[in-house]
Amino acid sequence: MSDSTTPSGDHRIAKIELDEETIIWRNADIEQERRIAIFDLIEENTFKPLRAAERGASGPYHLTLAVQDGRLLMTIADSEDTLVEELLLGLARFRRPIREYFAICDSYYQAIRKATPGEIETIDMARRGVHNRAAELLLERLEGKVETDFATARRLFTLICVLHIKG
């Protein structure tokens, strides 16, 4: 990761919001995942919107995520809340990973309550695998648009999943 004090700007997310109209809370477990993802993301991330940076924009950035017409809308503002860029990403390629992630998370939450430690570990390994593959897909989709790292992509994928929760 680059030094955030370089003259080129502080390319990270300092604030992140999810479109509240998109979200319908499913349960306490998902709400906890959301809180952890946002906390971890703010604590450590790499996020450089390339076109905005080429025009001289620098962070830290305020990012808002929403789903609009079946696509992910990423609204990126600077620290003064001035819009620097909006990105729309098609979500069709994420439908399966999102379904798989929800299914494995449900199994994991049930296992925590009644399974053996070995069973929980096996399910958790599968959950991490699904999450990692989805993060790699997100990195591919952001290529040429946003420069980021794997850990940031994992946390962003968690938040994309939260946006897809329907009651």
Structure report:
- It is a single chain.
- By secondary structure, the chain is of the alpha+beta class.
- It has one domain.
- It has helices at 28-43, 50-54, 95-114, 117-142, 150-163; strands spanning 13-18, 47-49, 61-68, 71-77, 83-90, 146-148.
- Strands 1-3-4-5 form a 4-stranded mixed sheet, covered by helices on one side. Strands 2-6 form a two-stranded antiparallel ribbon.
- The radius of gyration is 16 Å and the shape is elongated.
- The model is unreliable at 1-8 (pLDDT under 50).
What attributes characterize this protein structure?
49% helix
Strand-helix topology:
Layout: E1 13-18, H1 28-43, E2 47-49, H2 50-54, E3 61-68, E4 71-77, E5 83-90, H3 95-114, H4 117-142, E6 146-148, H5 150-163
Parallel strand pairs: 1-3
Antiparallel strand pairs: 2-6, 3-4, 4-5
Helix pairs in contact: 1-5, 3-4, 4-5
